[in-house]
Predict the 3D structure of the following.
Amino acid sequence: MPRNEESVATKLQRIAEKARSDPKCRFTSLFHLMNRELLWECFWQLKDARASGIDRVTKEQYAEHLMENLDALIGRLHRMAYVPQSVRRVYIPKQGSDKQRPLGIPVLEDKLVQAGLSKILEAIYEEDFVEDSYGFRPGRSCHDALRVLGRTIERQGTQYVVEADIKAFFDNVDQDQLMAFLAHRVADKRVLRYIRRFLKAGIQEDGVYRASDRGTPQGGVISPLLANLYLHYTLDLWFQRRFQPGCTGPARLIR
């Protein structure tokens, strides 16, 4: 894949450095990074042999004319003519339960565009997220969170451990709040408009379309990042700035 004089990776690194050095910076020019180099890289990072969305296009089929498909996609993106398709909803068994978990399957191009936007936003928000946030972040896992929890209990004389889970979190995220949180750091209107389009793309289940007024699409490539962003502002910063100062002893939230 031919590269420009300055690679996308270098540009993303400069964005990360700016985000780290200036916590109040609002980025006005990001969408130009949605180019052939970035989307080509994102395409090959998509997992093979995954279920297809409502258009039934597979990764193998898209790859047959990859460069032509990418150029056409980039043209639509930059004309603001790209419209995400609704997510195909299926149900999979929920581990440790007899219930089923809803899963959304976007079409391949939507996965690709979401992956590109995720890389851009990740460069900013990985500089903002707190140290004790572990879910769906690069180089981090649940095992890391458990390791830190174990050390905290052993070394700090912990008296209470509270375990909490947010019921149906992905289905109930307040989209308007999420967009407001995004606007703290992102001022590029094209990025914001496309994320709003993905949130509003809707769901198809058994051939029936349903609008999506709340939540983020489960199964969407960008959903974990948006979930972390939402919880960063509503939970992590609340704990650090409001809850923790009122505690009579040490308190720690490991998410």
